[in-house]
Specification:
There is one protein chain. The protein has 201 residues and is α+β, with helices and mostly antiparallel strands. It contains six helices and eight strands. The chain has one domain: Electron Transport, Fmn-binding Protein, Chain A (Pnp Oxidase, Chain A, Roll). The N and C termini lie far apart (44 Å).
Length: 201
């Protein structure tokens, strides 16, 4: 039986932080726009900041649909979902409003410094931080989710972007069709990218 919660309590926080994978879902306001669903990995790049706020690092990729939907005026809707592939069958969802903290935002250095150094320091491909302000927190049984064994992190993404200089990463973003603009023509990631600020760590 699913339940809703007033906040991300200690048990839910422990579950969220233990999962190696989560999903984000967003959509544009237009009824005929493209709904987006993205898997997110890279352990240590999602934090529960407090009982109603989460943050994750947005890395480079072939699109920027999530950023576009969150930056669309009057939008910002986002759902995060975690599911247990081992242990008790559990699905946790956080429905809320997302906010994109770009690299030139004054809040960026302080937020970025809160992530574990081993997860983000020296990591290429960082585009932004996404803040999620929870409006609904719930869990469900997850009885239909298969049991699967977690083996290890894939390092292909990190290795690929770590080989790129800031200039090369900016050029990569510029030549991708749906990074500056979403599938539906919404502004996504502002280019050229400002320099990645130092965190003082």
């Amino acid at each position: 039986m699913g339940k809703t919660y007033e906040r991300i309590d200690g048990r839910l926080r422990a579950f969220i932080e233990a999962q190696p994978l989560f999903f984000t879902a967003t959509a544009p306001l237009a009824g005929d726009g493209h709904v987006n669903l993205s898997p997110k990995g890279r352990r240590g790049t999602l934090l529960v900041l407090d009982e109603l706020t989460l943050a994750y690092v947005d890395f480079g990729g072939s699109g920027a649909e999530t950023l576009a939907h969150l930056r669309e005026p009057g939008n910002g809707r986002i759902t995060l979902m975690w599911t247990a592939f081992s242990g008790p069958p559990t699905v946790v969802r956080v429905h809320g409003r997302g906010e994109v903290v770009l690299r030139d935002d004054p809040r960026f250095p302080g937020l970025f410094a809160r992530f574990p150094a081993e997860a983000v320091d020296g990591q290429g491909g960082v585009r932004a931080i996404v803040l999620v302000h929870a409006r609904r927190v719930s869990d469900a049984c997850g009885y239909a989710v298969p049991l699967m064994d977690y083996q290890e992190e894939r390092h292909l993404h990190a290795d690929y972007f770590n080989r790129k200089s800031e200039e090369e990463f900016d050029a990569y973003c510029a030549r991708k069709e749906h990074i500056a603009t979403s599938l539906d023509g919404l502004p996504a990631l502002p280019l050229p990218l400002p320099p990645l600020p130092r965190t003082g760590r």
